[in-house]
Amino acid sequence: MPKPLIAGNWKMNGSRAALAEVDAIAAAAERANGVDVAICPPFTLIEPAVRKVEGTPVAIGGQDCHWAEKGAYTGWTSCAMLVEAGARLVIVGHSERRQYAHETDEEVRRKAEAAIAAGLTAIVCVGETEAERDAGEAEAVVARQLRGSLPTDGAERLVVAYEPVWAIGTGRTASCDDVAAIHAAIRRDLRAILGDAAGAQVRILYGGSVNAGNAAELLAVADVDGALVGGASLTAAAFVPIVEAAAAQG
Ligand code: 13P
Question: 69-96 as b/e, with b when 16 or more CB fall inside 10 Å?
Answer without folding.
Answer: eeeeeeeebbbbbbbebbbbbbbbbbbb
